[in-house]
TrEMBL record:
MF annotations from Gene Ontology: deaminase activity
Domain of life: Eukaryota
Protein name listed in UniProt: Uncharacterized protein
Membrane-crossing residue ranges in chain numbering: none
Entry's Gene Ontology cellular component terms: cytosol; mitochondrion
Pfam families linked: Ribonuc_L-PSP
Gene3D superfamilies: RutC-like (3.30.1330.40)
Family, per entry: Belongs to the RutC family.
Length: 127
């Protein structure tokens, strides 16, 4: 049976709770949900949902790369928004860093997110 391996990188914000930035298992990397924190300052990036989405995807990219994967190898993305009014703005940031063929994706609206963020994203990629 394959073993799971934790992924940690300074290229993404340190977890704010007891979890790994990612887990490698059976040729896949499962990236934990990330909000738009700048890993250098540990503060939410300024601007809107678009800017935070871009930062989140850069953070996810750092975790994926540490695991031996990349954004091009992402299979599934889950997006959490605190308002569906932000859907188009999130997509503007999303399409800057994700290119075809695009991963499968789910986007849901939630009541609240950690650190009062308005967007959080998690993903699964292959190695």
């Amino acid at each position: 049976m394959a073993e799971k391996t934790a992924v940690f990188t300074g290229g993404a914000p340190a977890p704010i709770a007891p979890f790994s930035q990612g887990i490698i298992y059976n040729g896949l990397v499962y990236c934990s949900g990330i909000v738009g924190l700048d890993p250098k300052t540990n503060k939410i990036v300024e601007g809107g949902v678009k800017e935070r989405t871009i930062q989140i995807i850069k953070n996810l990219s750092a975790v994926l790369e540490k695991a031996g994967s990349s954004l091009d190898k992402v299979l599934k993305v889950n997006v959490f928004l605190t308002s569906m009014d932000s859907f188009n703005e999130m997509n503007e940031g999303y399409k800057i860093l994700f290119h075809g063929p695009l991963p499968a994706r789910t986007c849901v609206c939630v009541k609240s997110l950690p650190l009062d963020s308005d967007v959080e994203i998690e993903c699964v990629g292959y190695i």
